Amino acid sequence: MTTKKHMSEVPMIQRVTAYLAILVGYFFYCYNFVIIDYVRPYIVDAYDGINLADTAQFYTWQSVGALIGALSCAWVASNFGKKSTLIVITALNGGATIINMMFTDYAMWAAMRFVIGISLGGYFTVAVSLMIGLFTPTVRGKLTAFASSMFSVALMAMGAYAAFISSIDAPWQSLMWVGGIPPLVAAALMIFILPSDKKVIAYGEEEQAEAEASNTPAKKGSWGEMLSAPYRKLTITCLLLAGLNFYGYQFFSGFVTTYLKEVRQFDGATIGIIFSISAFGSLFGAWVWGAIADKYGRKVNAFGFILAGVMASVFFVAPSDLMIGSLNMLAILGLIYNFGLSASAVWGGYFSELFPAHLRSFGAALFHGGRIIGMWAPMVLVFIQERSDLATAMWGSPIVWIVAGLLWLSLPETLKGGIFDKSKKAETAKA
């Protein structure tokens, strides 16, 4: 049997390059997740058989695919290797996006968005578990949070590129091509750049490697084990927490532009300014919370959710005409709200750290697993809105965020020496 070497023996330049390759794929995971929203009006104009209601269902099919991809790719990576799984789903992301453009009817568009969704959910699951194994735990928070910030970067890049192709009268399909070709290139590069998990022991997987070295059969994770007695509570708590994240997001962010237009009676320009400034909080917030998680522990970030809940409450009662300098106060409150929410940028790594090495991919998959709960959020909000009004229904957001923050605090701390690390307190007591 070939002796494995530890990740610390892999040159730092190769590990950094591997992280950057995964990051490129992560950018296009984010890009292709939201591209359907951007091209929706173009699809309606271009294809006679597809209307606006149909395009809304494309996102649903994509989300269902993401859920299946996250849950299934965790098992695939555990049994066939993380590197090979990541390469295949990265190529699937790009290839399916290109094939998607060959069709003009609803059924095939829905089918392709479903397939693309599988690759997207799978990418998050496997990329995160590979990413955190490249470096020591003291930098994982920053690395996973920076990767999560690619969502904001992808939105900004998409907007800038869309403006560019519009200025030169290029076809809207150019946006889709950008989501298709680079992932194929990234997948090819990963073959040569990513350390093989069959030959290298990742950080945090030392115990599993020792068991293999002593001829103990290598553990293969399963969802049955994730729901077994030792891990059941952790699994269900993470799923519930991820589900509440989708609920809180939909109850505020999913309808905030409608709220600003119909309830606050703002014009389009004001709504755009408030929305864009608020969104900026997510970008720099991910970096800040990543650093906080590495220094003080993953559970400290739970206070970001509580902060978001407080800011949402203030947002709903703040007067519409209150200005701070040249900015409407709602823009500032929205910025702080999104800053708080970005505390969840560390979840991919944190959920993985909560479980043993052979269950890491399954832990990362719990983020998208939360869609089992969260996919009903828009319907719940509309149900409440129909029996009251939009402003009342949206008050569910601060309630959800505060409950989610408290639930997060009930989970174990995974960073040794963190503020909420119980082992540190036990050692202090013994001393």
UniProtKB/TrEMBL annotation:
Q: Which CDD domains match?
A: MFS_SV2_like (cd17316)
Pfam families tied to this protein: MFS_1
- What transmembrane ranges does the database entry give? 16-39, 59-77, 84-103, 115-136, 143-168, 174-194, 234-252, 272-293, 300-318, 330-350, 362-384, 390-409
Q: Where in the cell is it found?
A: Cell membrane
Domain Major facilitator superfamily (MFS) profile: residue ranges: 18-416
The reply on keyword Transmembrane is: yes
Know the name of this protein?
Answer: Metabolite transport protein YjhB
Organism annotation: Vibrio hippocampi
Lineage here is: Bacteria, Pseudomonadati, Pseudomonadota, Gammaproteobacteria, Vibrionales
Identify the coding gene.
yjhB
